[in-house]
Amino acid sequence: MAQSSYFLAPDVAYTYHTPHPPEGMPKNHGVIRVNMDIERVVIETTTGEDNDQLELEKLDFMHWEEAIRAKGIVITPLIQRAGAAVKVSIPEDGTQTEKVCIGCLVPPMQNDEELLDGTDLTYHALLTSDMRTARIFFLETLTDCLLPVGEILYLDMTILENPAFREQGRGDKLLFTRLDIPHIRTPEVGKLYVTCLHQPKGPRGRSARGASSLTFAVNPWDVQLASLFEGDPSRVVRHLH
Amino acid sequence: MTISVMAGNGHFQSQTPDGPVPCRVKPNTTGMDFLLARVMEIWNALYDRLMIPPKDRHNLILNCMRYTATVWENLVTAQAAAGRLIAVPPPDANFQAMSLTEIRDSLKSLIQYGPPRNEQVGQTVSFNSQEVNSTRVASTKRKLANNNIVVLASNVGSKNAEQKEEGNTLDVVCHVVPAGVPPPTQKRMRVELNDTETNANTARNQPLENQDVAVNCIAYTSNFAGLYVGLLNHIGAYPAEIDPTTEAMLDWGFFYIKQYASSSMDVFVRDNFSRMREGYKSRAVIMSIWLKTIHTLSLGKSKEESIQHLWFDVHTNALSMALTPVVFCNLLYRGAHMGSLIMSNVIATHLRCPVVGIRNLNRFFDMDRPPDLETMHADFKEDYQQIQEFIRICFSNNRFCPPEDSPLCSLSNISCYISGDATQDLLPVNPKTSLLRVPLGKDKDENHDISYKIALRIASQFGEELFGQCHMGPDVSTYRLALLYLSERFAPDFRGLLSPNMFFSRQHLAALGLERMAPGMTDYIESSPPPFARQFTIRTREQAHSQAIGVNVWSLLTVVSLIGNTEIHPDVSNYFSNSLVEIILSHAPPACTPGNVCATPRFGPSCQVAKLYIPELNERPKHFLRPNEPSFVRNGIMPIAKSCGRFAPEDMLHAPQLSAISKQLHCDIMEVPANAFTVSHRA
Fold first, then answer.
1. pTM for this one?
2. Number of domains in chain B
């Protein structure tokens, strides 16, 4: 047993689940909020066959940790950072088959600060250039869909905004990048941040010593998972020259 | 009676009837004089807490050759930080009662001795002393026992109501061996144990309420915890580990301090930052374990359960996320160059520099034109007007110095360095009292340099305060060295934390509506920071008029604003570090500081817990801002604040132990059972 405390900010919905519920109790999930107006910790449990019913339980600050432990509740990780990427299977147009594509988690409403949709406990992923989004249940997002930072992604080089990078005649090439976390304070919504190695050409040719890394924002539909790439490996460029 | 504490090294000082005995060992940190003053303050605070009357304090000879005041410091810190710990005895107790031994049978296995460094328990220290009189020399050989402070807490099983009451309390056992008494042996200790079981003095008159568990702890020091845990860690029995999320937070904070705040640190600290970082991290772990031990025992569980509980906890979560601001504050407090900060306040006092809010100052730094004062918030308006008035006074009193050492012909070639008040002829207005500017001419100090002359003036005007409050001086060379450090090594640069336009003098004058007064003022755009102070010879093309030490006006405003006052006191370093940590944390995700408040210990006569209020003025990012490193592309590992599997540390800031527990239980983070957690307080 570890002595543990959660660090909950007021009025933020933290998702929870019961991976190993106590004997005789069903698995459930929901959100926990610290409500400063009523000075209580509120557990909102989703019940019903279609997850359409809500049970509220209000606990005081001194006992809520014990109470959730008794119920087998564990607060899950919560994605709040911009540029979080997920992989989603969507049906291909006009066919019965599914394809895996990369999405970027976006707030459910334009002015929302949180990525989690508290109404149905889903994350919204922006998938395609026509702004098609998918709702992914939070447990599925956290268990199966979330891509780790550092995941290798291949980027379509034609979309690079800097013309200097496109003058190389590499229109059909893919750039080796890694999924990163934004390096700026206010990242763009709906963009993934990828980092690649930049090796500028010096007077004595290119040397690894002078290499630096470049991070830029890209659309989720402009990158593909390296693990799913089946093309010619020579199409993949390791460095941005 | 000798009271000694159990481990450590470094600076020391003793209280004697004649006052504090100066140290003979050079401390291993900077700002020795200031540190000693602060240590004395802490000791006095401890004596107050122990209710030791002033007349008895000189009998408490702290054996500082071997032990360190850091122990007391940690002790008081922890007791102040943990609200439920009571560091003072109950009002009806007295000091004599506290020194009695109280150990119960069931605690024997928990009893530990704190052997001093490089010595074994029970070893005696011998020394010879000689008395010389007119006829003969008498040599006496004395033996001093190692003074063991044995600290234990009661943790008796709850057989009946009375014992339960005892079990729910922690009665710290402070075993003090008077000097000259032979060292305790196991046998004698057992006798003492038996004796004290029936000692009426140890009985409590009234039971404590369960809801408010009192912990009387005076001597189970964090250093002792460090010693014990360190040994266990060394043999691999119970490794203490920080969970990855807290480690990420520490990583990020240390990176920010080094990158953006180290410019105000002592140069030796700056060069040894990684060593210092590891040291403070270790100290924090020890402190955390110290608190956990006391807390675990106070839960009133069985001994076996307590030990199991504690060590699993230490293994997965040796340092609480809530303690990370304390680590940053402690490191910055020790690292910041205290001498320069105090001298900054001396100069600010002399120049009547305004103390404005650091956030308002930062906002001013970002402005490039005068604001509409009608629509301004009153707080900002007041600060803006104070800055404006101060710069006006600097112009009207001819305080500005020329760039580098070029002749000062007109306001078209002035720099942002200000000195003392001067006349139109560039001579000091008050030649005898002007602190930063002295006239050129023949006097008795003609052969000395400008820093010495100014040091003399500081000694005469502020010497009493500097010596009395800060243990600085009284020799003039101390002030001279501080001035030299100020001009050669102290270069505070917070462009990474505050506005990047911090040194854009031209822009700031435009924001004040004063750009016409100094058309020659330029913006400083170099990447290296400008020195805080410079030495100048103020001259026209024809002749030299005066010598001066000029301070960068923007640096001065920033440092004073970070300190928050112009007191001449060692506490300035505390204020400074707390303000910087507030600013650093405002760049961290909000989840690091739920409620935007953090508690850090603040020393002073009352050893209060200070609260850091993290501003929400600028929207805080939901992610850690990390540097760009080519290695990330090669190996996929983030340079700082590394990922925990598929989750970034940002995803688990509200539940930092999740990843450590999952690792311990060999399961996925989403499979961690609820019963792997225990709550951090009693029902």
1. 0.76
2. 2
